Amino acid sequence: MLQDLLDFLFPRNCACCEQLLVANERVICTPCRNDLPLTHSHLSNENPVKKLFYGRASIENAMSLLIFQKKGITQRLMHSLKYKGNEEVGSVLGEWVALNLEQTFWHSELDMVVPVPLHKKRFRERGYNQVEGFGKAIARRLEIPYNDKCLLKTRGVETQVFKNLAARFKNVEHSFRITEKQKERKKLEGKHLLLVDDIITTGATLETCANCLLEIPGTKVSVATMATTR
User: Is pTM, for the whole model, over 0.90?
Assistant: First the structure.
């Protein structure tokens, strides 16, 4: 009854198609949820997400939930999250990813969720890190800590659009570092970290972040993202 009243006063729209949501639908309507292109990378023996990092970073395991294509349904969903203030998209996708992770043999090895950080200037512009809700939802479901204090973004970077792999890596290679606070660094020692982000394109950002985290003694890094390009 209360939800019906709230829906009447404050109509909720699908983040993909903007049609009104009905009872029991959250963020994404049922037709759009069924249309979202899943990668099933968490179940693939020939995991293309993990292969992306071969020879670049020592990634234990990797997965992405959705396939991202220009002007496609996933792009509309990501746009709602990043530019329309619809932070709940991240939480819903995080819960979905966590359910997929629970189907893997390696999810029980994870000790902590670490998000790719957002530069302070971008955070002020947007008001939130679009990866935060995503990472916290995964951590909550897997019952492990969420740590956004250990990995820092030290400078802003130019847009990655239209850059090739070499240019993207050069653009981000000195943009991240591990905190100098010994208390925070100590929390990472010997831990298997799940590094999370929104979209993988070339993997340059995640490669740089993973190699920063791997500087800490005994760490292992796996990766989970909302989407990946093909």
Answer: no
